[in-house]
Amino acid sequence: MTATAYPKSYLTDAEREELRRDGISQNSIYLEESRAADDAGDDETAEAWLRFADIPAHFLLTLKHSFGADYVRDLGYKLAPAEAAYGPGWLDDPAI
Questions:
Q1: Domain residue limits at 45
Q2: Which of 35, 40, 33 has the alpha carbon at shortest distance from 11?
Q3: Is residue 20 part of a domain?
Q4: CA-CA distance, 41 to 36, in Å (whole number)?
Q5: Phi, psi of 91 (to 5 degrees)
Q6: Within this chain, do residues 59 and 96 fall inside the same structural domain, yes or no?
Q7: Which of 16, 46, 72, 86 is the most exposed place for a label (fewest CB within 10 A)?
Q8: What is the mean pLDDT of each run of 10 residues along the chain (96 residues)?
Q9: Does 8 map to a domain?
Q10: Could you tell me the CA-to-CA distances from 75 to 14, 50, 63, 69 in Å, in that order?
């Protein structure tokens, strides 16, 4: 079994542990990692952390409407939330 290779973290171990103690979900911790990377000016790492998160379906749909289906695919985000909300093929369906 191979370990997951995570992007560079801008949160300290103590900050991550505090988030866990406060009951913050792993998905939200990924978002916090992305925010911390963004705050540090590291856009590439911020985007890499977002690839681990479940991005809300409505946000993925907004990206599709704003930038197109290929853009959303190229981001590499998990599409399962939008597939559950809008159905398989939502990304290529012009009616959605």
A1: 13-50
A2: 33
A3: yes
A4: 9
A5: -65, -35
A6: yes
A7: 16
A8: 83 95 95 96 94 94 95 92 95 94
A9: no
A10: 30, 9, 10, 10
Region of 41 on the Ramachandran plot (φ > 0 left; ψ -120 to 50 alpha; else beta): left
The total domain count for the chain is 2
Whether the CB-CB separation of 52 and 6 falls below 8 Å is answered with yes
Q: Are the C-beta atoms of residues 28 and 19 closer than 8 Å to each other?
A: yes
CA distance 35 to 29: 10
Alpha carbon of 84 to those of 11, 28, 57, 59: distances in Å?
31, 20, 8, 14
pLDDT for 4 equals 79
Confidence at residue 16, expressed as pLDDT on a 0 to 100 scale? 94
Residue 60 contacts residue 82 (beta carbons within 8 Å): yes
* Residue 79 CA: distances (Å) to CA of 24, 47, 53, 76: 22, 15, 10, 8
